Amino acid sequence: MPFRPSCCHGEERVSERYDQGMATRREVLGDAHVDRAEAARTSFDAPFQDLITEAAWGHVWSREGLARRDRSLLTLALLAALGNDAELAMHVRATARTGARPEEVMEAMLHVAIYAGVPRANHAIRIVKETYAEMGVET
């Protein structure tokens, strides 16, 4: 049974934004990933899981202003620039669903090299290549 964010005083509530976020999260990351994250949910991290589902996936990723492919490329560049390696690999795997092609991901990494530094891009490119290899995607 899917978790529903709780409101004050133990009352359960479901926001449209949360539902949209969960749907978008599943479309981008895949059911298997989201199911693992939900199965690992505890009362400690539930507020964080609710936040990312509603804010990141329901507010940002669900907007119509950019295509999923473009959001995917932006996310990859930002994660690489900030050195968020685990999230980077997760979003590389999501490119299978967002439509961002390996050559486009490399273009994003070139931007990272110029605007965030060659060492960050170099490290990110290694992660991208390893993740694509695990996925069976030729680079």
Description:
By secondary structure, the chain is mainly α. It has two domains: 8-60, no CATH class; 68-135, AhpD-like, CATH 1.20.1290. Helices cover 72% and strands 0% of the residues. The protein is built from seven helices and no strands. It has helices at 16-29, 31-39, 46-60, 68-82, 85-98, 102-116, 118-135. It is globular and about 45 Å long.
Write the layout of secondary structure elements.
Elements: H1 16-29, H2 31-39, H3 46-60, H4 68-82, H5 85-98, H6 102-116, H7 118-135
Helix pairs in contact: 1-2, 1-3, 4-5, 4-6, 5-7, 6-7
Name the poorly predicted regions: 6-11
* Helicity, as a percent range: over 70%
Query: Assembly type of the shown chains?
Result: single chain
Envelope shape: globular
**How many distinct folded domains?**
2
Distance between the termini: 39 Å
Helix and strand composition category: mainly alpha
CATH superfamily of the largest domain: AhpD-like
Order of H and E elements: HHHHHHH
Please tell me how large the radius of gyration is: 16 Å
Major sheet attributes: none
Averaged pLDDT: 92
Overall CATH class of the largest domain: Mainly Alpha
DSSP strand count: 0
- Report the total helices: 7
CATH fold name of the largest domain, please? AhpD-like
Work out the strand percent: under 5%
CATH architectural name of the largest domain: Up-down Bundle
